[in-house]
Inverse folding.
């Protein structure tokens, strides 16, 4: 009877991760991984019955290393705004990691031919993170800090904004380096845009946002309309 150990399992995952990133999912065989590990295919299958299961374990292990620390920010003791800002910066840093970029490129390139690859990656990666962010957003909604809405959609919106701009350009190979200043600027934009759209007046105080003053009762609103009409005529 073969004895399975955590050390051997971790070794397999490290070798498999490198193989998937270097050769892609399709071109990586269980036989090649077994040879690189230095054991038989039966030993490898004793740990992972299929290549899909092995790939899922690789993605999960990467998540434990990188994603879990990012999501732990949501359990922090800072103000909601500090937590949201720190989360945005951490998500952007993660998305720009060479390993994360290479993984996304591989999945996008091969998910059409191997749908199980995309499903496994999404379940162990993005879906895992978005679910945790949605739970935090739901708590903010229940506290009256954010307007009622589907927290899953808000989490996806937050994540999509983090992926935009420099992160998308890096993924497409347009740029190879995004400075810390650019990352901070994107994170600030994400937080401000998100709060502008979804924070309640009560939430503004908690999140540290200042809403524009309402027009005064002495004709400010009418003056604003007149100005708008004048601008329209000028156009």
């Amino acid at each position: 009877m073969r004895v399975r150990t955590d050390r051997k399992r971790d070794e397999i995952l490290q070798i498999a991760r490198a193989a998937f990133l270097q050769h892609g999912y399709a071109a990586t065989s269980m036989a090649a991984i077994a040879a690189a590990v230095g054991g038989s295919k039966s030993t490898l299958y004793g740990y992972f019955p299929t290549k899909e299961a092995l790939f899922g374990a690789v993605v999960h292990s990467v998540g434990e290393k990188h994603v879990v620390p990012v999501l732990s920010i949501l359990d922090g003791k800072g103000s909601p705004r500090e937590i949201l800002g720190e989360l945005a910066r951490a998500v952007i840093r993660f998305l720009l990691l060479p390993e994360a970029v290479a993984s996304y490129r591989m999945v996008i390139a091969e998910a059409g031919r191997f749908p199980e690859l995309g499903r496994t990656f999404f379940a162990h990666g993005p879906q895992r993170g978005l679910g945790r962010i949605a739970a935090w957003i739901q708590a903010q909604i229940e506290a009256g800090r954010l307007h009622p809405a589907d927290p899953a959609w808000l989490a996806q919106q937050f994540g999509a904004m983090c992926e935009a701009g420099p992160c998308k350009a890096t993924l497409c190979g347009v740029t190879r380096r995004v400075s810390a200043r650019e990352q901070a600027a994107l994170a600030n934009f994400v937080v401000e845009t998100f709060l502008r759209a979804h924070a309640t007046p009560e939430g503004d105080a908690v999140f540290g946002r200042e809403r524009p003053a309402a027009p005064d009762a002495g004709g400010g609103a009418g003056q604003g309309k007149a100005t708008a009409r004048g601008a329209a005529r000028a156009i």
